[in-house]
Amino acid sequence: MVDQIGMIPLFQGLPPDQLRDLADIVLAKTYQRGEAIFLEGEEATGLYVAASGRVKIFKLSSDGKEQILHIFGPGEPFGEVAVFTARRFPANAEALEETKVWCFPRKAFVALIQKEPSLALNMLAVLCLRLRQFAHLVENLSLKEVPARLAAYLLYETDHKEGKSELELGIAKGQLASLLGTIPETLSRILAKMSSQGLIQVDGPRIRITDREGLEDLAEWGKFAN
Predict the structure, then answer these.
(1) What integer pLDDT is reported at residue 141 of this predicted model?
(2) E strand spans, the chain
(3) Considering the domain 2-134 in this protein, what is its CATH number?
């Protein structure tokens, strides 16, 4: 468990004694596909980390429409609001597949942060990155049309991959559509147009970027070439 916790980006670089302290307080639970990890409005009692599987964070409108905010995979923290406040969760978390989750209870985790400032610095770096991602999401949903949002998503997902040209969609197109603030039919039409214009090649869930510069232009300006 200590070695596994040490591989989480949030805790990388911490000395063995601090990792053992974290291992002493962690609670592990496995969730099945579609099972709620926590609900919006519930008391926030701890920091969560996906150990395996995938988790979607989402909100529901008054008419039941779902807006996905994030999809997290192994090693990624979520529900971090609980670390700094005793308030309620601002969104829902649900397992997209069988998912193992580690929970670090708030009181015990805060005590470790007070004891070890280096842990707080790691938290700060992760939260700054999260804030930048939220700002990017707000910009895309409020200022850009769907083609630009999709282009930006594909570029973002391949930026950290070797070669920066291929990715495999780890989520259903309906979930991707929700993440981008559109509907599956619109998403399919835009993917088809991107393919017909030579920007990408689509093979089932696998997408290959064939014209990165053109895709960058689409992400920036939101318009297909004539």
Answers:
(1) 60
(2) 27-31, 36-38, 46-52, 55-60, 66-72, 77-78, 92-95, 99-105, 166-168, 200-203, 206-209
(3) 2.60.120.10
